[in-house]
Structures are given as structure tokens and as C-alpha cells.
Amino acid sequence: MISVDEARSNILKTIKPVATETVSIADAVGRVLAEQVRARRTQPPQDLSAMDGYAVKAEDVQAVPVELTVIGEAAAGGHYAGTVSKGEAVRIFTGAPLPAGTDTIIIQEDTERTENKVLIKEAAPYGCYVRKAGIDFSEGQLGPIPGTKLSPRDIGLLAAMNIPWVTVRRKPRIALLSTGDELVRPGEPIGANQIISTNSLVVAAMVRQAGGEPIDLGIAKDNEDSLRQMASGANSADMLVTLGGASVGDHDLVQTVLGKEGLKVDFWRIAMRPGKPLMFGDLQGTPMLGMPGNPVSSMICSYIFLYPALYALMGMKLSKPPVVPAILAHDLKENDRREDYMRARIVGEQDGLPVVELFNNQDSSLLSSLSTANCLIRREPFAEPAAKGSVVGLIHLSREYPDC
Prior knowledge:
Blueprint lengths: L3 H9 L7 E5 L23 E2 L3 E4 L9 E9 L13 E5 L11 E4 L3 E4 L2 E4 L9 E2 L20 H9 L4 E5 L3 E7 L3 E2 L10 E2 L2 H12 L2 E8 L3 H8 L7 E5 L10 H7 L2 E5 L4 E2 L5 E5 L2 E6 L3 H19 L10 E5 L10 E12 L2 E6 L8 H6 L2 E5 L11 E6 L8
Parallel strand pairs: 4-5, 11-14, 11-15, 12-13, 15-19, 17-21, 20-22
Antiparallel strand pairs: 1-10, 2-9, 3-5, 3-6, 4-8, 7-8, 16-18, 18-19, 20-24, 21-22, 21-23, 23-24
Helix pairs in contact: 1-6, 3-6
């Protein structure tokens, strides 16, 4: 068996980013930027008022109260075309350009208006409530860097930079192939010895959430012809993920059948719980990840291995889920030689850290506890017993890493 870190490293060193495409920024949220962008304008393009009030010369409002003559108005989207002289003011609204000759804004609340006169009741320093030209960004300034998964905040910045289109990585196509005579889809008739196939739906949802495009190849029967025929559907995919059939057994045909089709196995067992029978290899140029059949194992392996592979395909330099400190709500026994990922819930907070409670039953077939869990507790191989109040490593399940 190899370690989790070694397995993840072996996977990532074989992954190359997918090709690029150009999309509208309206469709770019969640996509990974592939080329550097630069602002096509300066924001704001000129000095603007940050408040409703009056544009004045700072030297006129140092000694108050003082009365100024109102000579015009400037609204957002418009401007005052003249020049303001000593003793004069222009009524101005938020977002309007400062008239020539002014340098300071007196907010409306600090004034009293009578016809064409305004009484300034509060002094203001030079530049008060003025948004200087370029305070946000200047033309040519760099935007989000390549490798950034674009957030709604990034879309707002790109729009303000007057960038209507961006070059992004296309969505990686992940082919999912379930295996086993015992599997049926939700809603189908269930035989006496059959179970509902959940893994493909869970992993497909995770792929979609991470920014990929899942391709469901269906459920292969436990025979060579079925597995070979259905696996051929992965020819156009960027990665093939098999679900089940990766461990040692008479009916675990993945290695045997795909080996005849050119599969070169890198590893197939890792020192991890759950998820020991994880397999990785290359199928005629397509990375292949063989997941365990147990639903909890396949989901946790997706967090630990599939997500980093997906991010690498999208050109993101992320190798592992973030592990943050948390405090145990109870004692925990020592660990054996396998790296543990244990389902848990955050039940409180102490000293700024989450307090976590593990589920008593960590059986890798229990979907109910997986649904209820919102985090995993990660334990190193041969970890010593941990007492209540000890600090342990936590991985959030309720968030897609890394930008939680």
C-alpha cells in the first residue's frame, strides 16, 4: 500500500489542463480563467462625488458658517460644464463628475439651501467625499490571474474593467462507469439481491459542483463484454472514473478487462480508511480513477483525489483539501497504520475553533451519517490517543474547496 500523499502526487503528475474556450462574462462564473486580462478603462475615469451635496473649493469652507452662491447642478450621468470660482458652489449628486475648479464635497446634511444660496455649516478638509480618478483601477491594470475560479465578485470586476469576454478552461468531461450485477437505478424494480446505485449520482454531483461535466456511462454487468463495451464510452472524456470493481475478488473485473484494453495501473491500494481499494492508471492516454464500491468510500475518495484531479484539469494549482484545526468534543482512541477520514459534525465553538463530534458508527456503507456529517476528521497513521479538548485536523464537507 502507498500513502495518501503519494497516491495524490502520482495522480496529479499525470494530469494536464484541458483546452480553452472563450465565453461571455455573463456565463463565466465558476469557470477557471486561462488567460491574463487587463482593464480596458480607468475606474473611475475622473474625480467623482461620493455623496449628495455641494461641490466647492476647500479654501472656501475652512471657516464656517459661510454662504456660497449656487451656480448650477451636476447629476450622475451628466456634468456641470462651467468652472467654479471662489465663493461659488455646484449642487452635485453621488457619482457625478466634480466640476472644474472644485476639489471637495460638502454633504447635504451639513448645509442649508435658500434659493441660489447655500449655507455651509460644517467645515471639510480638501478632497472630502471625492472619489479620485483611478482609485479603483487604471487602464491596463491586471485583473484576476489565470487559474482563478471566477466568483461573482470577479465577474463584477471584469464588467467594470469593460471586459465582455474571457478565455477559460473548458469544463473537464468526467466519464462515470458503475459496475455490478447487483446495482439498479433509483426507481427501477429491485431484485431480491440488488441494491440502489448511488455512487454515480453522488460523484456526478460532486463533479458538477467542482466545475466539471459528468458523463454517465451507465452500469456495467459483471462480465467482460459489458464492461469493455461500456468503458469504450470514455474515449472522448478527460478522465474515466469507475465505481466499484477495484478490489480483489472473483467479480472485480476492472483491472482484468481494462488491462486487455491497454490500462496501465499505477497503484491500486492505499493506506487510507475508508478507500483502501483505490486504483489509478492510464487507459490509452485517458487518466483512469477506480473508486471503491462503498458509497461513503467513493465520496470521501472524491474529496481527497478526484477534486484535486479536476482542479488540475482546469489549470488550478491545488493539490489537497484544506485541513483546519478543530477541538474534539470527546476522547478518541489511537489510530493504526492507515490514514483515517472520519465523519463528524461541528457542534459548537471554543477559543475561535469549531468543536467536533464524531459519529459512533463509521461503517463505509452508511449514507445516512454521510448526509448528516458536515466535516471529516483527518488522523495521521499511528496517531496517539486524543483526549477531549485536543486539537485535530478538520476538512469541511459542506464546502467545495479551496475557496470556501
